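User: Could you check the structure of this?
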Amino acid sequence: MAIDLKLNGQTHRVEAEPGTPLLWVIRDELKLTGTKFGCGVASCGACTVHLDGEPVRSCQTYIEDVEGSEITTIEMMERDRIGAAVQQAWLELDVVQCGYCQSGQIMNAVGLLRENAKPTADEVDEYMHGNACRCATYQRIRAGVLRASEILEA
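Assistant: Sure, the predicted structure tokens are below.
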């Protein structure tokens, strides 16, 4: 089936079978590889993108369900005020270890800060729960989200 996909501010006409996960269209058809495959069952968060501004797991979001929606990937976060603050905080605090999960972590963190500009540590932990980090940098991720909140407040 042909579908018009609005991704990162541009419309792309793509061909995909119904039931095709958005993740594979983003990576394989549109060649944007910042969004990662982690588990395929929406449990790890590596594939997180924004759908109409909300974080979703693209491995379990089907192509036929996104027509007419605005999809944003990690590739656009440096142009987003909140995304840029999160990326700055990640660099300042050296959050990343291996980096595989970080695009999903950043996309989820941006979603949190859009909802709650000044979260507590507990609120960060609760919101970010479900984004797995194989290197267990959870304390640095929490600190990064809190630092991004400070950057945005300044």
